[in-house]
């Protein structure tokens, strides 16, 4: 257990970890989804488009720095398969189908 030097008190890190563990024992997946949704809504009320563009840019740069060409090829392949093959029966149309329907007058 991580302790502060003063009075053998629990460190902030250890207290946070123990508190998180206790909370996770008392709540289910839906609880965490709900607080995540509330946090996302609060964040969207406090920030504008520029904020999201900036964090997206930073995230993209960080991902780019830590992954190679093969990573992007693999996720592109998986995404293409999901869009092209996995949309039957899910209520979504493929780009090809949308293009055909959009081309009709």
Automatic annotation (TrEMBL):
Pfam families: KGG (PF10685)
Compositional bias ranges of the Basic and acidic residues kind: 1-16, 24-81, 93-105
Superkingdom in the source lineage: Bacteria
Alphabetical list of InterPro entries matching this protein: Stress-induced_KGG_rpt (IPR019626), Stress/Virulence-Domain (IPR052590)
Start and end residues of each stretch annotated as Disordered: 1-105
Record protein name field: General stress protein
Organism: Paenibacillus spiritus
């Amino acid at each position: 257990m991580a302790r502060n030097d003063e009075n053998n008190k629990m460190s902030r890190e250890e207290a946070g970890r123990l508190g998180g563990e206790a909370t996770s024992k008392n709540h289910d997946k839906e609880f965490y989804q709900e607080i995540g949704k509330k946090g996302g809504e609060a964040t969207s009320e406090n920030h504008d488009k520029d904020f999201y563009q900036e964090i997206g840019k930073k995230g993209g740069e960080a991902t780019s720095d830590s992954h190679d060409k093969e990573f992007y090829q693999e996720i592109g392949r998986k995404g293409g398969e999901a869009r092209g093959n996995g949309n039957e029966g899910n209520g979504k149309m493929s780009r090809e189908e949308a293009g055909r329907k959009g081309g009709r007058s």
